[in-house]
Amino acid sequence: MKKNKVRYSEIIPRTKQWPIVQLSKNRKRFIREVTQESFDNIKKIARGKSLREELEMTVYREKLRMKANPWKVDPKDERDFWRHIQHRLVESQGKPDSVRKEEEILKEIVQRYAEEIAGNFKNTYYRFARAFVTFGFARLLNAARVKGFTSLFSKQLDLGDKIKIVGEPEHIRSLAKKGTVIMVPTHFSNLDSILIGWVIQFLGLPAFIYGAGLNLFNIKIFAYFMNSLGAYKVDRRKKNPVYLETLKTYSSQALRWGCHSLFFPGGTRSRSGQIEKSLKLGLLGTSIEAQRILYEKDGEKAKKIFIVPVVINYQFTLEAPALINEHLKRTGQERYYKESDEFSTSYKIATFLLKFFTKGSDISVSIGKGMDILGNYVDDNGHSTDHNGNPIHTRDYFISNGKITIDPQREQTYVRILAQRIVEEYHKYNRIFPSHLAAFVAFGMLQKQNPKLDLYNLLRLPEEDLTLDYKEFKRNFKKLRKRVLKLHRKNKVGINEGLKAKADLAILNGLRNLGMYHAKRPMVLKKDRIIVQDANTLYYYYNRTIGYGLEKYV
Fold first, then answer.
1. pLDDT value at position 524?
2. ∠ CA 469-472-477 to the nearest 5 degrees?
3. Which of 73, 351, 389, 448 is the most exposed place for a label (fewest CB within 10 A)?
4. DSSP one-letter code for 182
5. Taking the chain, what is the end-to-end CA distance rounded to the nearest angstrom?
6. DSSP 8-state code for residue 394
């Protein structure tokens, strides 16, 4: 795997030629197209309900959302709008023109959703935001490494010194010249969107569109940067089919317009700390739909859509304690709770970034090998091959009786195949850090010491029962490290170089980085004992290395 040394040149120097700029210039037309296509699709998909029933359920769910989980970023006319929609539905019932009125209501709802989702990319703002983010992050990094006020203006260190881009950076640049790239990263932290935005511009790629949680637009300055860097808004509270169809159509249309896209197929940050193993198929399915429509429209000359898995690796995750607590509440089947939002104020965002960049922990971003929409690897020219290296023509996947056909069941099968391939690539391009392995060893030892306890009882053990002998811990660490290095040689997982140090140094490195920000460290070393101070957060970091069959070696 090659590591980045210098910033890459832009593959399309003139930003006016970027697809996202063309979409932005034609924003009204684009929204009209999204609205009309979504409207047509929703009418076709009956789901065993009439259009009226679908609309009534949408209104009910929206009213429930507003009452149970309101956000500051919600439009001021939200309640009035849905009250008005409900009133019109009631008025139209039983009238001769009720079908026409229901369709008018549907179109109005879809247009509102499309307007809400749509990004507001401006090329001049993008340039400023990109320069500001790069300058700001680099200055924070220098402040951490080179003490003193003047370090804020030092050029001694660059973000490339802290953020390591590994894997296949040249490959993704080649693919972005040949077709449309969809980058599908893992998702662990609210920092991910900004981090990936920086990686995209570092690699010299045109701006990508990407879905960002609507809650992140609560703060005006943050919303400015999100919009400027290509974000469109995703409201994860909205689960009704009308909204989801509009969101999927927005993604599909943008791909057909040639916009490179980024979305987190896990849907949201991993609450458990585990690499995503069950992906959301909705947005992922838009890549297959868009590819089929492009083949229908342009035949053999159609641009290909490429899927590029990306794994983001942190030594520690700032939100880990809150995330694992949410996970445990969900799996423990506790009653409904409101999702915590660490990014609800500009102060919290500023504190988050300052503390993250003033810690000494490195970050790595692993760029995977590109695949087509069926999960077959592609070469630098975008040509697909099977596992034996034989050429594949992806257009053939959509042909039935000699012509391209629409087959929803077939495309659902394709998207499941693609999702599985992405998960496999995540595990391959994941990098195991000393902190991850140390947490895995410690929690695994606790499980072996308490074989009769289930997870929840294990997490409730008193502190005096959460200690481990360091010599035994070290033996287990060396044994698992040997196994990890063997997997690495077989190209089944990546590793951080710190894992190759002498065992004592690797362990100390892992303990220092593990939860360095948290109020209570997951575990510490005192004399000849490992003391577990926060079993819940330790469990989060333990989960980071699940999926490699290491459990049996503890």
1. 95
2. 120
3. 389
4. E
5. 29
6. G
Work out the angle between the directed axes of helices 98-117 and 51-68 (0-180°, nearest 10). 40
Q: What angle do CA 372, 310, 360 make, to 5 degrees?
A: 170
CA pair distance 394, 42, nearest whole angstrom: 28
Q: What is the pLDDT of residue 11?
A: 93
Q: Which two tokens stand for residue 468?
A: 């481990």
Q: Where are the alpha helices (DSSP H) in 49-179?
A: 51-68, 78-92, 98-117, 123-145, 159-162, 169-178
Residue 42 carries which side chain, given as an amino acid letter? I
Q: Are 184 and 172 in contact (CB under 8 A)?
A: no
Residue 289's pLDDT band, with cuts at 50, 70 and 90, is very high
Q: What is the pLDDT of residue 156?
A: 46
SS3 content of the chain, % helix, strand, coil (to 5): 55, 10, 35
Rounded to whole angstroms, the Cα distance separating 493 from 69 reads 40
Report H helices in 213-264.
220-228, 241-256
Q: Is 181 helix (H, G, I), strand (E, B) or coil?
A: strand
Q: What is the pLDDT of residue 20?
A: 92
Residues 513-542: tens digit of each pLDDT: 887 778 789 999 998 999 999 999 999 999
Across the chain, what does the average pLDDT equal?
A: 87
Which two three-digit tokens encode residue 177? Answer: 């010249």
The DSSP element (H or E) to which 330 belongs, if any, is helix 320-331
Contact 540, 314 (CB under 8 A): no
pLDDT in tens, 455-513: 999 999 998 899 999 999 999 999 999 999 999 999 999 999 999 999 999 999 999 88
Torsion of CA 246, 252, 255, 256, to 10 degrees: -110
Rounded to whole angstroms, the Cα distance separating 133 from 231 reads 15
